[in-house]
UniProtKB/TrEMBL annotation:
Annotated GO MF terms: glycylpeptide N-tetradecanoyltransferase activity
Polar residues bias: start-end ranges: 12-24
Taxonomy of the source species: Eukaryota, Viridiplantae, Streptophyta, Embryophyta, Tracheophyta
Keyword tags: Acyltransferase, Transferase
UniProt keyword Acyltransferase present: yes
Domain of life according to the entry: Eukaryota
Name listed for the protein in its UniProt record: Glycylpeptide N-tetradecanoyltransferase
Entry EC no(s): 2.3.1.97
Keyword rRNA-binding included in the entry's annotation: no
Glycylpeptide N-tetradecanoyltransferase N-terminal domain location: 67-225
Amino acid sequence: MADNGSDDTKDQISPSLEIVNNDSSADELAREVEETLTLSQRHKFWETQPVGQFKDLRDTTLPEGVIEPPTPISEVKQEPYNLPGPYEWVTCDMGSEETCAEVYNLLTNNYVEDDENMFRFNYSKEFLRWALHPPGYYKSWHIGVRVKTSKKLVAFITGIPAKIRVRSDVVSMAEVNFLCVHKKLRSKRLAPVMIKEVTRRVHLENIWQAAYTAGVVLPTPITSCQYWHRSLNPKKLIDVGFSRLGPRMTMSRTLKLYKLPDSTVTPGFRKMELRDVPAVTRLVRTYLLQFVVAPDLDERDVEHWILPKEGVVDSFVIESPETHEITDFCSFYTLPSSILGHPTHSTLKAAYSYYNVATKTPLLQLMNDALIVAKQKDFDVFNALDLMHNETFLKELKYGPGDGKLHYYLYNYRLKHILRPSELGLVLL
Ligand SMILES: CC(C)(COP(=O)(O)OP(=O)(O)OC[C@H]1O[C@@H](n2cnc3c(N)ncnc32)[C@H](O)[C@@H]1OP(=O)(O)O)[C@@H](O)C(=O)NCCC(=O)NCCS
């Protein structure tokens, strides 16, 4: 239930187990994860992997850092893992229009849904190409599984390279994403093979750690974030069942509650341009230093990840009208969801808060301007996780908590304690 008592928002990511609530302390988190363990299943696959194990949660004698040291690359398995007979591995060239369309179709029909199967992520082709082609990407990390006879694409997993800082340790990692198995091939233990294969290909590039997120609880989250949703088009959100009219609320009161100004309020607010890359890089690098886990971004990364890309990522800077200095910036990415089985609406247009840095403008005002431009661009909803400093504006800007969690994980890197979401400075797409 939203705090303003006006509406109740569903979430798009659906964990099977909710283990934390928003205000849990790290200790409570640890206890709740342990309880989850005793209550629930073993993890036959994840128990074999170099990840923090539930049983070790309270064991503070275990050191932080790498769990298994790297081996010589010559000792990394040289052939792909075995797949069941009818299937074969392929490397997906996302630069090929045809392959990109196949991946798009697989994900559009089989990727993440909410708990009630009302919405499914609908990453666009342009988004997928952007997400998978950062500086230094490896084509071999974009992995598909096809049916040998028909060549139909039935599973997918990807990695991209990233430098992630954990405390003072900057680590070369893979960010693993877009794990998807066709609905007809579920529960056949294909996912562990996909994960082992991407791990093998990552090892072949002499990279030994990874970062990933999931809506499900696995051993062991470094933190668990909650999604919050800010209605921009409340009528549509209610029509499609994303939100409900709050108690004692009418539609007209709801529309009034979420109404935003027609234009942004901060002087010097403008779209980010190529010439802003050095200033934005300085801002984001300094800002991210305060988090325990955050990406280590250079100018090339900022140009790729933060410079606006039509229909994919939007970014705005505040240029001081007096000094022309870039003092703040905000950004969001575009990730629509398909609305499943609705008679009139097929797509929910959602903006997701990305990296935001305020040094002169109050963060609340900057993020209100982000809402205003998102509304101008016809987004239906603005989503944000409770990581970084987002908690400081969510309630005040009329976001309501979603009912899903997003758990963050590191592979082959242990942290002694579960982090608070506000200690995390990493947004994965
Ligand atoms: C996620 C998905 C690929 C898992 O495949 P599946 O057929 O359901 O499961 P499988 O039988 O192949 O494998 C089960 C193992 O994978 C693990 N697993 C399931 N989802 C996972 C995830 N998102 N990330 C990592 N591991 C996952 C399970 O925990 C289990 O391992 P365990 O026994 O150690 O616990 C599949 O359900 C899917 O495509 N879902 C829709 C898209 C999606 O949710 N993708 C993940 C986004 S984070």
